Amino acid sequence: MRSGTVAVIGRANAGKSTLVNVMVGEKVAIVSPKPQTTRDRILGILNRESVQIVFVDTPGLYRHRNELTDRMMHTTENTSKEADVILFVHDGHAGVTEEDISLMKKYSSLGVPMLIAYTKTDIMPKENIPRDARLLYEAGIGTDVVPVSARRGRNLRLLEQELTKLLPEQDRLYPEDIVSDKSERFMVAELMREKILLKYDKEIPHGVAIVVNTFEKQENGTYDVNLDIVCEKKGHKAILIGKQGQALKETASFARKDMEKLLGAKVFLTVYVKVREDWRDRATLLKEFGYNDEQN
Ligand SMILES: Nc1nc2c(ncn2[C@@H]2O[C@H](COP(=O)(O)OP(=O)(O)OP(=O)(O)O)[C@@H](O)[C@H]2O)c(=O)[nH]1
Ligand SMILES: [Mg+2]
After folding, report:
1. Cα(73) to centroid of ligand 2, in Å?
2. Topology, domain 184-288
3. What is the tens place of the pLDDT at every residue in 80-134?
4. Could you tell me if the CB of 12 is within 6 A of ligand 1?
5. Is 149 near ligand 1, meaning CB less than 6 Å away?
6. The domain 2-166: what is its CATH number?
7. What is the per-residue pLDDT across 176-222, written as a single tens digit (0 to 9) for each?
8. Where are the domains of the chain?
9. Strand 114-119 vs strand 42-47: parallel, antiparallel, or unpaired?
10. Strands, DSSP E only, in 10-135?
11. What are phi and psi of 243, to 5 degrees?
């Protein structure tokens, strides 16, 4: 039996969460075309008869700094040092930059075995793959590179086999029937945030936190969910709500449908928009909104 943790790291928007979701076979992390979608460390657990791979999805490595992104970087570094394997996810269709190479060097020198998943191969010319692999090799990165497409399901089995080889021989770390460490309550908030990421320009979603006030299962099996969308500016609040509340209604309705899929039951969702200026730079508010320094 092989089992262990795989820290899934890489630049923001590289495709880390998408890859974890397809490897695990369930949506454990939200996905969007905008960077900084993932804010927390999230476990996605793949169970086979003689293997358990515990993927640890992390916030993407990102340049713009504030208290929230600093905490996110911290999370990623600590997660990598503690993992059995580092899976560095690289967006192949974005090419390879100096910055990519220096990030890969940094993480491959932590003393933890590393593998590179070169992803999004479905939207790029095939001939770029060997070219980029050579570039990395010549830059001194001795790590194996596995080209994959999470969207098309290409090479995922190979990736699983390569990861398995790097895991220690030991018993399962988690019971076989668990796919994530996050609660339904957490996922409900994340689904709301995902729809906001998909619907609004990035300045708005990046300044949004979701607070779940009520998450209750009723006797008839339905759920009552009440949440606040906390944003940073009055102007953002107006945009989030839209004319006669139309925008908010639409976003909430999208989110509700996904919540119902997740919970397998009808959801009665109520949403309010609140303004808390600069919450991303205020440690006390970050804590209140669940972004602790020590994630679990
Ligand atoms: N074509 C294609 N698109 C992909 C693939 N994997 C991910 N994407 C897209 O890339 C975007 C980013 O995906 P995410 O999984 O949210 O990326 P991430 O690395 O988790 O991003 P952060 O959490 O912001 O760091 C989304 O629009 C995905 O649909 C892939 O294999 N092929
Ligand atoms: Mg992500």
Report:
1. 13
2. GMP Synthetase; Chain A, domain 3 (3.30.300)
3. 999 999 999 999 999 999 999 999 999 999 999 999 999 999 999 999 999 999 9
4. yes
5. yes
6. 3.40.50.300
7. 999 999 999 999 999 999 999 999 987 899 899 999 999 999 999 99
8. 2-166, 184-288
9. unpaired
10. 42-47, 51-57, 85-91, 114-119
11. -65, 125
